[in-house]
Design brief:
By secondary structure, the chain is α+β, with helices and mostly antiparallel strands. Helices cover about 25% and strands about 25% of the residues. It has three helices and five strands; from the N terminus they run αβααββββ. The strands form two sheets. A three-stranded mixed β-sheet has the order 1-2-3. The chain has a two-stranded antiparallel sheet with strand order 4-5. The longest helix is centred in the first third of the chain and has 13 residues.
Amino acid sequence: MFSLLLPIFALATTTSARVNCRYNATAPGQVDYSSCSQLAQRYGISIDLFFRLNPLLDPDCSSLQGGKEYCVAGSVLDTTTDGTCGPSSPSSCLGYSGGQCCNSQTLRCGKTE
């Protein structure tokens, strides 16, 4: 089973994205492999979205810590491919090779503040 989860983990660690979390929930004191699924179900999100909102978690849920907060509502913006950014763009400059700062006047990613 671990080998089936490994490609998902590899994809998650190589994809740059920006998480905009709108609501955090506290994990129960006692956690196990099913705790991630339980949190996702409780807050009405898919397990895939739960892991995208919490990209540092291991895909087998083994790194979930009891009593800690995790994002359960929000959005994930993937890294821009064409350098566009800003409020109307569905992507982020985080990880963009041309620069990770979004210019508020040109709405383009770059290296200047």
